[in-house]
Amino acid sequence: MATYSTNEFKGGLKVMLDGDPCTILENEFVKPGKGQAFNRVKLRNLMTGRVWERTFKSGESLEAADVLELEMEFLYSDGEMWYFMMTDGSFEQYPVEKKALGDTEKWLKEQVAYTVTLWNDNVINVTPPNFIELEVTETDPGVKGDTAQGGSKPAALSSGAVVRVPLFINEGELLKIDTRTGEYVSRA
Amino acid sequence: MPTDWRPTASIETLRARARLLAEVRAFFAERDVLEVETPVLGHAGSTDLHLASLSCQATTPAGRERLWLQTSPEFHMKRLLAAGSGPIFQLAKSFRDGEVGRRHNLEFTMLEWYRPGFALDALIEETAALTCRVLGREPGPLRPRRYRELFRESLGLDPFVAELAELRRLAGERGGLDMGDAPRDDCLDLLMSLVIEPTLGRGGLDVVVDYPASQAALARRHRDPEDGAWLASRFELYCEGLELANGYDELTDAAEQAERFAADNAARRAAGLPEVDVDTRLLAALAHGMPAGSGVALGLDRLIQLALGKASVAEVMAFATPHC
Fold first, then answer.
1. Minimum-distance CB partner of B176 among A34, A36, A55
2. Considering the domain B11-140+204-323, what is its CATH architecture?
3. Cα–chain-centroid distance for residue B264?
4. Which domains does chain A have, with CATH numbers?
5. A77: which of A119, A126, B125, B168 lies 20 to 30 Å off by Cα?
């Protein structure tokens, strides 16, 4: 297996740490003028999503993680597994467990492309697109004319997510949502 | 075709850099310190355990031989001092293998100067004056901080007497790594770099003095009046969490210098690192007699970075290492 030395660490590099695949977020070289050099490294554990801050002696190395990020569209769920298909024309399908899906479950919509992370051929994470268009399935009736004033109400969306929306929104409307913050952006 | 041909500093920044370089030269001209230029390549390198020297093969009248790229202009400048140059300064390109990051570049500009007859305190004052001049700040009161006190204040332990096991545990805990077999100085370096340094030089200049004798490098040693512990007669200047300068009350004893070179190379062997050719001409110059005095090396790119409010040294260099 390939290894990477601290001076090759850069954002996006996938390495193994404590048995888990991680992606490097930041790598800072720290060295007193006369003294041992260290690398202060921030990594995201791809299994848990947690950010770790670790220090390495410069020149130490970590094993590369066999991690792939692929674009796949959501097909369907049978209640136990969620199925995604490659968008490269190969029609290759991957089953995803609830655990790997995590919070993305509430942003699922058929035929939308997601970034699926594979580690040793198993799906470990699914990231939704930054923005997604979803239909309002349930909310209080809209208040006419109130387009600029503040005020919001909860609205349930077709994917199962509940977001705060302006008072003028009605059931059946298609909304653009920022999946990173879970916030309403606009009418679609 | 590569798309990263453009400079890592803007042209506007390079103009500002040129103005600051002129300011540095004016500072030393006013003080009658002679500007010198010494070779970047030499027959000897730095033996320092934690400096990785670059070397190259060159054809010279002696044939095909190995020449070292300097990690600082120290050795050549000391030979000038021994030859009677009087006070000298240099803006010197220096090279340290593997050192690339937000605060480091493989090749960088060292502002180094020597003051025969200066005690360390006088040089500390001059270093602070130069720093304030380049930063465009009014010189404020300097805050001298003893290495030992810094550890006591921020970590609650005496770095000179603490058990090695305790230092390893603390360094490992603060750094998030296993320091189980690390030597004492590595633990101290890690704690200094990660815990103490970021707090230094906030809203003013901090000068750290009285380093452990094991970190003396080319500085004299003296005893701590507190308990007689050996200390290194050196200082470091900090501004905004950044180490800017490293100064010594210079070692002038040829025999002791030779011993430290040998000890460095022994430590390099033990660590599995390549040995470095010792500068026998420097030893000869010291044996001839170098005037007692102090000298300091200042990372000019970092100082310019601070003066111009940039986030990394790359932003004040025409072409930082990844783009050269």
1. A55
2. 2-Layer Sandwich (3.30)
3. 17
4. 3-63 (2.30.30.30), 67-127 (2.40.50.140), 131-187 (2.40.50.140)
5. A119
Range A16-45 average pLDDT: 91
Instruction: Give the whole-angstrom CA distance, residue A90 versus residue A166.
Output: 42
Q: Is the pLDDT of residue A146 over 60?
A: no
**Residue A6 DSSP symbol:** G
* B129 to chain A, closest Cα gap in Å: 21
Chain B residues in contact with A50 (beta carbon < 8 A): none
Query: Number of CB pairs < 8 Å for A and B?
Result: 69
User: Residue B322 has what DSSP assignment?
Assistant: G
> What pLDDT does A149 receive?
62
Substitution target in A26, A36, A38, A57 with the highest count of B β-carbons within 10 Å is: A36
Distance CA B169, CA B188 (A): 12
Give the tens place of pLDDT for each residue, A71-99. Answer: 999 999 998 999 999 999 899 999 999 98
Q: What pLDDT sits at residue A148?
A: 58
Strands (E), chain A: 3-5, 14-17, 20-30, 38-45, 51-57, 61-63, 67-77, 82-86, 93-96, 113-119, 122-127, 131-139, 152-157, 162-166, 174-178, 183-187
Calculate the alpha carbon distances from B289 to B73, B179, B195, B232, B234 in Å: 19, 42, 41, 21, 21
Smallest CA–CA separation between A164 and chain B, in Å? 38
Chain B hits for A40, CB-CB cut-off 8 Å, are 194
Interface membership of B71 toward A (CB under 8 Å): no
Domain locations along chain B: 11-140+204-323
Which stretches of chain B drop beneath a pLDDT of 70? none
Place of tokens 């024309």: A89
Residues of B in contact with A27 (CB under 8 A): 101
Q: What 3-state class would DSSP assign to B46?
A: coil
Q: Residue A52 and residue B185: Cβ atoms within 8 Å?
A: no
Report the gap between the CA of A13 and the closest CA in chain B (Å).
Answer: 16
Report the distance separating Cα B150 and Cα B208, nearest Å.
9
Sign of CA dihedral B82, B86, B89, B90: negative
ipTM value greater than 0.85: no
Quote the minimal CA–CA distance from B60 to chain A in Å: 32
- Rg of chain A taking only CA atoms, in angstroms: 21
Q: What is the mean pLDDT of residues A18-39?
A: 90
End-to-end CA, chain B: 15
CB B263 within 8 Å of CB B275: no
| β-bridge mates for residue B69, sequence order | B41
Collapse the DSSP code of B215 into the 3-class scheme (helix H, G, I; strand E, B; otherwise coil) and give the result: helix
Q: What is the pLDDT of residue B203?
A: 87
Is there a contact between A35 and B193 if contact means CB atoms under 8 Å apart?
yes
